[in-house]
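Progress note, sequence design subtask.
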């Protein structure tokens, strides 16, 4: 799953991006409101971590413009502002969740996973499609109760497909959501990873819809 991190404190952004990466997310970064606005409108993200106190354009204004443009990506607001009126203002502008600084990176990760579950229409922290289960928090994958070892990239692709169970996901969509902008991308990479997943999970776990993409469930 791909996350846009918007934070003007470089050291805080570095630490948070590291924690998100270790949790299995692909992370892109913006340090001001203007870059965040453009990236959110032109790139595919599964969720956004947004600071309100940004240079050039406030996080609150970025959020308002995204929502006016019809962008419904889940947004977790991070801010040093702790007045209840500002929290309400952020939520009314379209934020899905709100955390004040200072915070623990592990809680940010947990809240993001909860946002992603809700946006996919689920509540359980464990994803289940057919005989395959994935616990994103623990990085545990099982097929019919049998543990399966997957690489971080394989888990990222599997997680995206499981969050969209029953839907067709194109190769381009997978590419956009499991790689950050700076990651190396090759045209056949997704095919290679899907083939590996089928070997480990079973050939019927991921179906190919010819000419369209892949589907689980």
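Output:
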């Amino acid at each position: 799953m791909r996350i846009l991190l918007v934070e003007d404190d470089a050291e805080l952004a570095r630490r948070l991006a590291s924690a998100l990466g270790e949790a299995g997310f692909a992370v892109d970064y913006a340090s001001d409101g203007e870059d965040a606005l453009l990236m959110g409108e032109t790139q595919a993200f599964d969720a956004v971590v947004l600071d309100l106190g940004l240079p050039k354009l406030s996080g609150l204004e970025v959020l308002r413009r995204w929502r006016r443009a019809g962008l419904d990506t889940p947004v977790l607001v991070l801010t040093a502002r702790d007045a209840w009126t500002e929290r309400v203002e952020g939520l009314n502008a379209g934020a899905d969740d709100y955390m004040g600084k200072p915070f623990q990176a592990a809680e940010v990760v947990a809240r993001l996973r909860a946002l992603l579950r809700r946006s996919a229409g689920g509540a359980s922290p464990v994803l289940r499609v057919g005989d395959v289960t994935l616990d994103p928090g623990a990085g545990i994958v099982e097929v019919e109760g049998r543990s399966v070892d997957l690489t971080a990239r394989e888990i990222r692709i599997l997680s995206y497909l499981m969050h969209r169970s029953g839907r067709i996901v194109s190769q381009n969509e997978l590419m956009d959501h499991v790689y950050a902008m700076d990651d190396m991308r090759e045209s056949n990479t997704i095919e290679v990873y899907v083939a590996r997943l089928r070997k480990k999970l079973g050939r019927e776990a991921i179906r190919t819809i010819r000419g369209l993409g892949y589907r689980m469930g």
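The first strand starts at residue 2 and ends at 6. Work on this subtask will continue into the next period as scheduled.
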